[in-house]
């Protein structure tokens, strides 16, 4: 286990007051980040669920999915760069899996860059298995995506 595992996070469903901070972390985390407007639109998407992790009231991470029948497709997950390696990513994933199960979801899927070893290791340790490759999936550099599934 690297770093210190903190259990001081609070979890809330994302609401309008969180969107600016979420978009800020998104911007620091991805080559092709979603905009603030994109996250705002998710607040009224009936298929979407987003959770924010808060420490002392500040957003330190988030995760979301689109529910499609009994499947949950993870759209984004990120931890604020200065807060990584402390167990927050794992706690955030545990929380979204708990929410999905409580909604009757039976399987969760996501795409991850082949080069993103931190995320791939996290997902694998939580029961996600690789199910294939989407070639040239990422527009910025043409990198392949690994498709991963976790069946509950
Ligand atoms: C992926 C991400 C959410 C992980 O969050 P985190 O808070 O740093 O992760 P944690 O501290 O909870 O680590 C959980 C596990 O992930 C893996 N992991 C995390 N960072 C790692 C690294 N740098 N190298 C290898 N494995 C790593 C380990 O298996 C770790 O478990 P361990 O501590 O028992 O070894 C974070 O790195 C991030 O926001 N990255 C940028 C956005 C991103 O790539 N999102 C995923 C898109 S698919």
Structure keywords:
152 residues, alpha+beta, Aminopeptidase, seven-stranded mixed β-sheet, 34% strand, globular
| DSSP helical segment count | 4
- Provide the CATH top-level class: Alpha Beta
| Poorly predicted runs | none
Q: Strand percentage, roughly?
A: 25-35%
Q: Report how far the terminal alpha carbons are from each other.
A: 25 Å
Determine the CATH superfamily: Gcn5-related N-acetyltransferase (GNAT)
Largest sheet: 7 strands, mixed
**pLDDT averaged residue by residue:** 95
In the CATH hierarchy, the architecture is 3-Layer(aba) Sandwich
What hetero molecules are in the model?
coenzyme A
Which fold name is given in CATH as the topology? Answer: Aminopeptidase
Shape: globular
> How many structural domains in the coordinates?
1
Q: What would you say about this model in short?
A:
The chain has 152 residues and is α+β, with helices and mostly antiparallel strands. The chain is built from 4 helices and 7 strands.
Give a verbal description of the structure.
The chain has 152 residues and is an alpha+beta fold. The chain has a single domain (10-151), classed as Aminopeptidase (3-Layer(aba) Sandwich), CATH 3.40.630.30. The chain has four helices and seven strands. It has helices at residues 19-29, 36-42, 88-102, 117-125; strands at 10-13, 48-55, 58-68, 71-79, 107-113, 129-134, 145-151. Strands 1-2-3-4-5-7-6 form a seven-stranded mixed beta sheet, sandwiched between helices. Strand 4, helix 3 and strand 5 form a beta-alpha-beta unit. The mean pLDDT is 95. The structure holds coenzyme A. Coenzyme A binds at residues 1-3, 29, 77-79, 84-90, 110, 112, 116-119, 121-122, 125. Coenzyme A is lined by residues 1-3, 29, 77-79, 84-90, 110, 112, 116-119, 121-122, 125.
């Amino acid at each position: 286990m690297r770093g210190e595992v903190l259990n001081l996070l609070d979890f809330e469903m994302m609401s309008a007051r969180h969107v600016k901070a979420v978009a800020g972390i998104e911007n620091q985390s991805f080559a092709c980040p979603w905009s603030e407007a994109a996250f705002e639109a998710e607040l009224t998407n009936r298929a979407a669920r987003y959770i924010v992790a808060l420490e002392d009231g500040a957003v330190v991470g988030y995760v979301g999915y689109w529910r499609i029948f009994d499947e949950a497709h993870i759209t984004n997950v990120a931890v604020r760069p200065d807060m990584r390696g402390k167990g927050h990513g794992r706690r955030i994933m545990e929380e979204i899996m708990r929410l999905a199960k409580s909604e009757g979801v039976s399987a969760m899927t996501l795409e991850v860059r082949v080069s993103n070893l931190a995320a791939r290791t996290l997902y694998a340790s939580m029961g996600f298995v690789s199910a294939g490759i989407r070639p040239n999936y990422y527009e910025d550099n043409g990198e392949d995506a690994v498709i991963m599934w976790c069946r509950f």
